[in-house]
Amino acid sequence: MAPEDVLCDCNRLTHAVVAAAIATGARRPGEVYAACGCAAQCGRCLDIIRAMLAAAR
């Protein structure tokens, strides 16, 4: 996945933005959203965010 690929259409979060949130300490989806200054909307991106979190462990 490219850094500029959008993972979350509702909040326009890119792969790079989510990866940065995880790199700075986010360990749960809610923490990722908070670090990005937004909140979950429809939830379609949750599986991708969870996979990224799992890969970072």
Summarize the structure in short:
It contains 3 helices and 2 strands. It is mostly helical. The chain has one domain (about 5-55).
Describe the 3D structure.
This protein has one domain. The chain has 57 residues and is mainly alpha-helical. It has helices at residues 15-23, 29-35, 46-56, and strands spanning 6-8, 13-14. The radius of gyration is 10 Å and the shape is globular.
Largest sheet: 2 strands, antiparallel
Based on Cα principal axes, name the global outline.
globular
| DSSP helix fraction | 40-55%
Low-confidence segments: none
Write down how many β-strands occur, each being a DSSP E stretch of 2 or more residues.
2
Order of helices and strands: EEHHH
End-to-end gap = 19 Å
Domain count: the total is 1
Specify the structural class: mainly alpha
| Number of helical elements | 3
**Integer-rounded radius of gyration:** 10 Å
Give, in spatial order, the strands making up the sheet with the most strands: 1-2
Query: Mean pLDDT, rounded to whole units?
Result: 96
What fraction strand? 5-15%
Q: Key terms for this structure?
A:
57 residues, globular, two-stranded antiparallel ribbon, 9% strand, mainly alpha
Give the topology, please:
Blueprint: E1 6-8, E2 13-14, H1 15-23, H2 29-35, H3 46-56
Antiparallel strand pairs: 1-2
Helix pairs in contact: 1-3
